Each structure stands twice: as structure tokens, then as C-alpha cells.
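Job type: complex structure
Entries:
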Amino acid sequence: METNTIEPKLTGKDFVTDQEVRWCPGCGDYSIIKQVQTVMPELNIPREQIVFISGIGCSSRFPYYMETFGMHSIHGRATAIASGLKATRPELSVWIVTGDGDSLSIGGNHLIHLLRRNFDVNVLLFNNEIYGLTKGQYSPASPYGSVTKSTPMGSIDFPFNPLALCLGANSTFVARSMDRDPIHLREILKRANGHKGTSMVEIYQNCNVFNDGAFEVFTEKGTKKINTLMVEHGKPLVFGEKSEKGIMLDGFKPVVVNVADVSANDLWIHDEKDQVKAGILVRFFNKPSDENALPRPFGVFYTEDRFCYEDAMSAQLVEAVSKKGKGNLDTLLKGNNTWTI
Amino acid sequence: MNKQTEIKSNVVILFAGDSGDGIQLTGTQFSTTTALYGNDISTFPNFPAEIRAPQGTIAGVSGFQLHFGSQRIYTAGDAADVLVVMNAAALKANLKQLKDGGIIIANTDGFDAKNLKLANYPEGVHPLKNGSLDKYKTVEIDVSKITRAALADSGLGTKEMDRSKNMFVLGYIYWMYNRSIENSITFINEQFKKRPELIDANIKVLKAGYNYGETVEAPMQRFEVKPAPVEHGTYRSIMGNQAAAIGLVAAAEKAGLTLFCGTYPITPASDILHELSKHKNFGVKTFQAEDEIAAITSTIGASFGGALGITTSSGPGIALKTEAIGLALMLELPLVIVNVQRGGPSTGLPTKTEQADLMQALYGRNGEAPVPVIAAYSPSDCFYAAYEACRIALEFMTPVFFLSDGYIANGSEPWKFPASADLADINVSFAKNELKEGEKYLPYKRNEKLSRPWAIPGTKGLEHRVGGIEKENETGNISYDPENHEFMVKIRQAKVDKIADYIPLQTIDNGNNKGKLLVLGWGSTYGSIKTAVKEAIDEGYDVAHAHVKYLNPFPKNLGEIIGNYDKVLIPEINNGQLIKVIRDKYFVDAKGLNKIQGLPFSAAEIKNKIIESLTN
């Protein structure tokens, strides 16, 4: 977008609406919306060109709190609504806000088709591994055995690995961040906006009412550094209190090593363009308590340049006009074969 | 030999054969030529549900019925004067459609032992030889043999030669009805541009069929059907689905909007998608979504962005779209939902016609969710009904149902097409930022039509949020206030009711303004009712016909019209749906005539009921 259309310079406050925010006190959504509102002015997109679309769920109240165009739609369909909007208005900056129930369960079908079509939109998937708005049932992201209101004896559903699913659907941008790391989240949001194509951002978000602490080993001081792996393009995969641990590939098998024991060249160097390695990275999905658990990675795992549906669609219209000329309604009404009486 | 020519005022021909026999092509070719000659005409194809059902079986029979005449024609005809059968199964499946004394033209090659067995004739029974067809006139021709003989020097293989069999039949029927083969020659030249050897072969066989009538030493009748006294003007042939698609494109053009059609393939609606996808040079964007729900929700997204949003489907798909229709209604965005009805419930009868989704259109949603409904009554009326549905959707910011059905969607008729300049204007304007300093934009502030403004993304200063949760009047903010909810429910209803001020009054199609019996129809039953009522009036019965196109809201004078008759008869291809609404709204003791066989009414069925109603 051209910056010269913006005057005066907007701030985060310009993206706050007059509506009272109704998330539970302490909800991770507060941090996420704050980071989104902070990042928005930096994107240099005129406010009227921005559209937030959501489905149903706690996170889906998001558009009401964003001073942009917005639609709070129906359960699971934000992705499909955004597709139609982007198909007809490619110049808009379209953001989808969804949760793990909304996008992976009821809207699972639309999510995978959005990703393969690669509309140039951004998906913010607030993953709290629980249904919050309906008050505490397990979601497709809840771990096996989760005891919730609807699973008093523990969930017997094997959960999705959301980003592995997205990569399987040929997503062209796959990233993960968390509500408790504002700096990281803002960076990832900017990267998502910069990517041409569907940007898939999974955000670990704490539901302090129904699933408190689901991600605390990854988000809290004390445990964060040994259980998370912050990846950066071109940098080796290292983690730990003092970055003393690293990841090496033994064939296709990732293993944890002491950085001191290996030469720097032996460590896995992150390459965002490598789809095979991204496939391995998103499958770092152990519980931290598992034996030989790999750390949970955060950052941009994969990016790819691939044509966007809306551009191909527009190109066909241009081609049709160049081949057949601009449509003439009277010619269409007349058809190819007429007779006069 | 005896080759007399008999003058007929109208003729029904039913072509039937295996789905691979080119029956639809034969039928449409004869139709086009006949229309060009100046007859009035109505056609109806009857496909098997299976794409390639086993050859020679009854399940695999494809039919094409054509009614043409020197008088006005309103239906594809009750019963056939001529039945053309390419094999034994085609005869077995369609004989009951033939009038007593009618003509059967049979391809004898399709009646060998194997074909008889596939058609389930008992061992030793041969319908062409056992006298069972004595009340008909049967013309037996070994079409395969003659076709192969005609192409002996063509160098084509037997299989390819046999593909031209339909051209022989077409040529023969052209001879029977004294029609020129020129139009079909032009068609063949165009169709096989890339395979010149097939051009020669097909033309040769077409001529062979024509010449067979001319030269064969057998008593054969020829018929003449003179041009019909139709309104002067320039005509084209049109099918219902094609007309609907063109109507949608026309509406988008007149409104100056991009047409977006989010849809999912379903019988019998897919042809609208096929037709729309040919018109990308009009800026038409067709989106084949991953399912019915994405089809409509993507369309809602497009409407939010300022496009003319269309979603097309049939009953089962509409069922899946239900929740999203409610969303469009809450958002108050324009959207046209096309339902080309088919036999239901569930998967039902995909290739057969029915009018059983009227209740679904009127009431099939959660909550108080009124949606305007418009139904087309003929193939060409699909154009006007689709156009009108768009106009109402755009001018009233509401989802609108456009109902068609398999009978008119696949049927065709001549159409005196309009000039674009003669189409009604569609007034659309996006909201502009005219706010004063400090003034808040009110996305749900209504105009005199109770319609809200269409403020599309990209309009500086009009940033706003819409959603499916109940909203506060004017501001559109979330509101759970009890009084506000009741107010909003009532105002959404009032908006739909208000449309009655902006649609034409109901007219009487035929008959007196007052009298003993009113036949009240809707949708594709028009032709059958029209024909039946016309005949009954000619015979002196006191009956009139009114056909309702606007089913929600009804025209303001409908109740008054109904009150002008002693009795009301409502024929429907369902178990009684419009009748429930009419009884509910106007407290009238209307009687129904219902047929639920996946087939349209014959005019005779309706006429019999009219006479019964007037004599009891």
C-alpha cells in the first residue's frame, strides 16, 4: 500500500472501537488484540481497506473491537466468507480471526480449501485447546485424555496437529506464536501481512477459565527456554537457558544435542523455503513430559511463493475480454441463432 | 405409392433411445429447425439419472419430448403423436406416453434378442411382431443397417458409423414434417470443424434419412404444421437455466456491479454455473466452492464487498445453506439464492421435477427470518424472474429466493428477447461518507423502503462491523435488549412486507375477473394450467387462471382477486404447499390438485379437475 494516502499517521488507539470488550479478565485474547492494534499502523494500510472477519467463538468477537470494516459471521465460515470477499476485492487487506473449534472442527473443510487456493489473506488461529464460549467442551486440538465437561472420563479423540494439517493442505505460510510473547507475536503478524498468499498463524492462547495453563510450560519464565525453540531463517536451531542445546538431523530424524559437543555446521540451519524440513519441524509436537521430547517450535516455519486464486481469477477475466471483447448485453440476449416473424 | 400429406395444428414427438444414441441432439436439432420455420414450440428432455447406465436397459433410456404447432404452445404436450424408439427399452419405457393411433418409428436393429432381454421382455415376446402394437401405426426401419450401408465407403469403423444413426432418424423426421435439412447441415459443419470426415459422414446419413422417406416403396404419411400466429418480432430458443444465467448477468450489467456466483455442482442447477462461467468477459466471477455452505458464505463475502452475489443450488444444497441465509438476512446484504427444485426429500429424484421446496423457501430457517420469494413460470420467464430477484435483493438489501424447477430449467421455448435498454433500471448506490464532524456512522439507519445503506470496505470514514448476533437499531452494535430484539424482528418483517409496494399487482392470465372457479398456480405448472383453462373456457366453462410469481410478499390485490370467485383450485407438483399459505392468509377454502410423480401435470389432468370442480 502507498503510505502517502495516510494522513495523519494512525496509532494503535485509532484501531480501538467504542465497544466494551467482553472477554473474561485474564484472557489471552487481550494481549493478542493489543498486539494487532499496535501493529496495524505500522503496516501502512489505510484503515478503510482493512477487513476483519470471524466465525463463532470467544476469539470471533474480535472484529467488534477493531475500528476497521468487520464481520462477525457464523460458525466455521469466516474462511469461506473471506474467500468471496477477496475474490471480488483483491485490493483489500483481509484478516480472519478464528479459534481451534471454529477453524479445525466445524470449519475444517473451508480452512484446507482456503489454504490450497492461497487467497492473499491472513488467518489468526487462536488455539486454546478448548471450547470457551460454549463453556468448556474439548476441541479437535485438545490432547487425548483431556478431562472436560463433555469428557468426564477423558477425551478419546486423537487431536489434530494444526500446523501439520495446514502444511498438508499446501499452505504457503505457516507460523506459530503465543499470547504471552508480545514482541514475537508482533513480528509474526508483520511477517504474515508481508506474505503474498494465505498466511497461517497459530497463536497459543490461554483460556484462564476453562483450560488454564494449557501452554504454560511454553509461555512462562522458568520453563519457556528449555521447552521452546524459536526459529529464525538462516539460523541454527538452538534452545535452552543459555542456548546450550541444539537440533541436529540424523537422516530425517531430529535429535537434541549439546551445542558444545558438535560443530556449528552440524546443527540444523532453519530454511523457511524447505518444505520437507518444515514438515519435520511442525511435527515437533511432543508433550514436554515425554521421554526425549523435542522442544515446541515458534516462528515462521515455511513460506512459499505461489499464485493466489484471486489473481488467477482476475487474469482470466482480462484474458476473456482480450479474446472475446468486452461483453455486450444485447449480443448476449440475442444468442447465436435468431429468427424473425 | 400412397404419400399423402395431412395438415396438423400441433404435434408431439417423443424421441427415445439409449443415453448414448444422441437423442438430446436429435431433439434439439429438430426443435431449432422447427422454431426457425415459425412454429410455436415447447420441449422437455428426460434424462436418466445415471450418466452411463448399462446400454439397452430401461434405466439407460434418454428421452426428448417436443411439442410444436401452428397455434400457441404452452407445454411439452400431454401425450405423443409420434414415438421414435432406438431400441426395445425405449419402447417399453415410453409406450404409455403414446396416443392411441399414434405412430411408432422403431429402429429394428435395437430389437434383437439381446436388446429384448435387456429391456426385460419375456423370452419369446417380440413387441414388433406379436401384434401388441396393432392400435398404433408402426414404421420399422433398420437404421443401423442403412446407416452403415450409406457410410460403406467412408473408411470409418462400425462404431463410428453407428454414432451417426441419430442423423438418419433426424433426416427421416425432417422428411415426415416437410422441413429443410439446411439448419442441421450448418450445425454439423460447425460441430465437427476439426473432424472433416465426420462432417461428410453425418451429412450423408442425414440426407439418407430424408431420402429414405422420399423413395422407399411403402405407404407413409407426411404432415404439415403451418407457422404459428405468434407475435411479430425476433426470436431465439432458450432453456430455463440458460435464461436464468443471462438474467443474472443482465441484472449485474444494469446495476453496474460485478456478478459473483459462489456455487457447488448439483442437478439440475449446474447448467447455470456452466452458462455463467462462459461470460467472464462481462466480469462475471464464478467460484466452484468446496461445499454448499462455502458456496453461499463466499457469496455473502462478495456481497459485503459490493458485488451482486448469487448462489445456485437445488433442494438438498439449499438445506445446507440455511444457516447462511439467516446470516445474510441479519447482515441485510443483497443475495440471490437460486433453487432449481427437484424431487425430494433428501436426495429424492435428482433428475425429476417437483415444486416441493416452497415451504423451505418461505419458512426453512431458524428464528423469524422472512425472505422474499419469486418463482419463474416458464423457460423464458426464468430470465425475468432472475432479473427481478436481483432488483429486489439490491434495492431492499435482502436475500431473495428465486425458484425454478427441473421442468422449466431443462425445457426450452422460443423467446422474443428484449433489448437491454428495455429492461427495468436497477438502482444501486453505495453509501458515501457524508458524516459531519464527530458524527458516528449508522450502518442500520433505514430509508423509505426500510432498506439500510450498503457501505462497502474501502469507503473512508464508514468503517463498521456487522454480524449475526442481534443488533441495536441503527448502530448495528450487539444488543441483547428484549425490546430491541422484538423491534428488530418486526422491522425486518416490515421491510419484506414493504416490497409489496414495489411489485406489480396480480393479474388474471385468462378468463373473467369474477366467476365460479379460479385456478391459482405458481411456477412451472403455468403451461399446463394455461392450456387446460383455455380449453375449458372454449368449451363454455366459467373458469379463470391467475399465476402467482411473487410468493413473498404476495401482490397486494391477491386476496381481493381470490375473493371474486366461488371456488379456488390450486394445482401443484407437491403435496400441497401454496394452498397452505393461501388458506392461512386469506381464510379461503381452496382445493388442491396434487401430483407427486416427478413429472409435470398434463393439461388434461387439470382440465378434468376443472370440470369436476364445476360440476360437483
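Summary: Chain B touches chain A through 71 residues (CB under 8 Å). Residues 196-215 of chain B form the longest helix (20 residues).
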